[in-house]
Design goal:
By secondary structure, the chain is mainly beta. It has two helices and 23 strands.
Length: about 350
């Protein structure tokens, strides 16, 4: 077992007391004015209310870190300027003293380069340790130039298939990051989700269609067409606390298909082939027999024209003759020849135009 040297214990205890004294040598932040900016502004000011509530006088060196955006996690590149008790700029740090149980003092601070939209946060430091967090909000009047990619631009046409996710693209033309909540409404049913829109870029989102959007009763070969709305609104951490958070409501034209397009295409081809095949399957042309009452015994021949009832554009020229030349022998010795477009064909083969007999 090693024995700890007494000097080491003295050094350790002295360090702990020094830390305790160091922590106590900082004023308390009682209040600071809201740091709110309009969209077109990059500068802001606040007043810090500081007080020494301890029993010993303290000396302090105040500084403020860069503001970091909660939307993009990027630093703003901001700078802070403190003002002294004489009302003159003191620079990026403020050195001073406070008496025990002193009354609160007001310290003015100006900020520049607060460029990020939404909420940003910085650390108020005293003697190189953080004593409080400062929050800035830049939301009112944001341009919020967010659009939904599609054709036509004013009302994009979007095709949805049941149980199939649809990728959409949101374009952000501003130089700031926007956390957003989007909602797509069709037939009084809404699907929604959150997204983060990067500055000057295009962000992909996936829409999962609601089952109630689709109906089997709609014609198989044609999409159901309905109008809808796509809403996108700023959804930063402070958007619920500050009125006037920006939003966009965009009209869309939705084409809804209950069945996957691959099934529909295959089935359509099969139906077309079936129709083409069925067009060749027509009933036999039933041209009437010659009337024996009109039989010419002298010529032993009769001719007439008959229109096929299945092919109205086709006319049969039918000639009949009897070898015996008498009406009595008509049925027993009749030889019929169908002449169509100059082509002779046995009547048992049917209509040349129809192709079936």
């Amino acid at each position: 077992m090693k024995i700890v040297h007494p000097c080491f214990l003295v050094f350790l205890l002295g360090g702990l007391f020094a830390l305790e004294s160091f922590a106590a040598d900082c004023p308390d932040l009682l209040y600071y004015g809201p740091i709110n900016l309009d969209a077109t502004a990059n500068t802001a000011s606040t007043v810090l209310q500081l007080r020494n509530s301890g029993q010993q006088p303290i000396s302090y060196v105040l500084s403020i870190s860069d503001f970091r955006s909660k939307n993009s996690q990027n630093d703003n590149g901001s700078a802070a300027v403190f003002y002294g008790s004489d009302g003159k700029p003191a620079g990026s740090i403020l050195i001073g003293k406070l008496a025990p149980n002193s009354d609160p003092i007001a310290v003015r601070v100006d900020f520049t380069q607060l460029v990020e939209a939404g909420e940003s946060e910085a650390e108020l430091r005293c003697n190189d340790q953080t004593i409080a967090k400062l929050k800035s909000v830049k939301m009112l009047g944001l341009p919020f130039r967010v659009t939904l990619e599609g054709n036509p631009v004013e009302k994009p046409v979007i095709a949805f298939v049941r149980d199939v996710g649809k990728d959409l693209y949101l374009k952000n033309d501003d130089a700031v990051t926007y956390p957003v909540l989007w909602e797509l409404s069709l037939k009084d049913k809404v699907v929604s989700n959150k997204a983060t829109l990067l500055p000057n870029g295009i962000t992909e989102i996936t829409v999962r269609p609601d089952q109630s959007w689709f109906s089997k009763r709609v014609r198989f070969f044609k999409d159901e067409q309905v109008d809808g709305r796509f809403l996108v609104r700023y959804a930063g951490e402070s958007s619920q606390q500050v009125s006037g958070a920006p939003s966009k409501s965009l009209p869309i034209a939705a084409h809804l298909s209950f069945y996957p397009y691959e099934w529909r295409d295959t089935y359509t081809v099969l139906v077309i082939l079936g129709v083409l095949r069925a067009s060749l399957v027509l009933p036999q042309c039933r041209c009437r027999q010659p009337d024996p009452a009109n039989w010419s015994q002298a010529a032993h021949e009769q001719a007439w024209t008959r229109t096929c009832r299945h092919c109205p554009a086709v006319e049969f020229t039918i000639k009949s003759r009897s070898s015996a030349g008498t009406e009595a022998h008509w049925s027993a010795a009749t030889e019929k020849i169908f002449l169509l477009a100059g082509n002779c064909r046995n009547p048992d083969s049917g209509c040349l135009r129809c192709g079936f007999g």
